Amino acid sequence: MKESDSEREMISIGRSVVRPDVPDKLLGRAIYAADAMRQGMLHVATARSSVAGMKNIQIDISAAQNMPGVQRVITAKDIPGNKYVPLIVSDMPFLASEQIRFYGEPVALVVARTRQEAKSAARAVQVTGEMFDPVLTVEDSAGPDSYVIYEGDYEKNIFKKYHIQRGSPDEFWPESHVVIEREYRTPHQEHAYLETQGMIAELDENGEVQVMGSMQCPFYVQDAVASILGLAKAKVTVIQMVTGGGFGGKEDVSSVVAGHAALAAALTDSPVSLIYDREEDFIAMSKRHPSVIKIKIGANREGLLTAAEIYITLDGGAYSTLSPVVLWRSTVHAAGPYRWQALRIKSRVVATNTAPNGAFRGFGEPQSVFALESAIDELADQLNIDPLTFREKNVIASSSDITATGQTTVNPSILEALEKVAEKIEWKDKFTGAYTGVVRHDIEPIRGLGCSVSFYGVGLGAEGKKLDRAGAFVQVESDASVRVFIGNTEIGQGARGVMAQIASETLAAPLEYIHIHRADTSRVPDSGPTVASRTTIMSGNAVMNACQTIRQSLETSAAMVLNCAIDNIKTDQRGYYDAANPSTAVSFHEVVSVATAQRQQMSSSGWYVAPDTSFDSAGAGQGNAYSTYVWSANIVEIEIDPGTLQVKALKIASAHDIGRAINPREVCGQIEGGVLQGLGFALTEKVAYSGLTPSIQSVPDGIMLNPGFSGYICPTAMDIPEIFPIILETPYEHGPYGARGIGEPPLIGVAPAVANAVSNALGIRIRELPLCPEQILNELIKQGRL
Amino acid sequence: MSKETTISFKLNGGSATVTAPPSMSLLRVLREGFQLTGTKNGCGEGECGACTVLVDGESVNACLFPVCHAEGRQIYTIEAFDDGSDTVTHPLLNEFMVHGAVQCGFCTPGVVMTTAGLLHTKPSPTIEAIKEALAGNLCRCTGYGSIIRAVQAAKNTFFMPEPEPREYSCQIAETDPVDIIPLKNLEELANLGVLETWDMRFISGGTDLMVYKNCCDYDKTGDVWIDLSQCSEIHGIRVENSKLYIGAGTTWNELVRDPHVRQYAPALVSAAKQVGSNQIRARGTLGGNLGNASPAGDAYPPLIALGAEVKTCASDGNHREIPVDQLVVRPGKTCLNTGECITEISMSIGSKMRSGFFKSVPRCAQALAKVSVAIAFKIDDNIIRTPGIALGAVGKKAFRVINAEQFLDGRSVDSPGIDDIVSACIEAAEPAEDFRATREYRIHMIDVGVRKTMNELLSGHSE
Ligand SMILES: Cc1cc2nc3c(=O)[nH]c(=O)nc-3n(C[C@H](O)[C@H](O)[C@H](O)COP(=O)(O)OP(=O)(O)OC[C@H]3O[C@@H](n4cnc5c(N)ncnc54)[C@H](O)[C@@H]3O)c2cc1C
Ligand code: FES
Question: Quick check: ipTM above 0.85?
Answer without folding.
Answer: yes
